[in-house]
Amino acid sequence: MTYRTDDGPSIDPGLQSLFAEFHRRATANGERVTLRAWLDRAEAWRILHALREAGGNRSAAARALGIGRRTLYTKMEKLGIHPSWEAAGAPTPGLRVAGPA
Known about the structure:
Strand content: 5-15%
Strand order of the largest sheet: 1-2
Structural class: mainly alpha
Mean pLDDT: 81
Number of strands: 2
CATH architecture of the domain at 37-97: Orthogonal Bundle
Radius of gyration: 16 Å
CATH topology of the domain at 37-97: Arc Repressor Mutant, subunit A
Order of helices and strands: HHHHEE
Helix content: 40-55%
Shape: globular
Low-confidence stretches: 89-93
């Protein structure tokens, strides 16, 4: 679907309100959210979701995302997503994000 700024097709109203809420929360502290930061946050959320659905199996998560395993590893590194077993003293397997993108 093509999105236009005139009276053409627009984004689904449910998604529009979801995006508006996300933007409100992201900018609540007065921070300006760039497009790159917005995309990084969305990408990190989707990767974490896929990893949780796959029980932490990165190969299965990559398949679900439609990307290669190495691409997933690269994106995880860029976004600061690390399996908790790589974190010092983590008692159980899981996932953690290093911090905001």
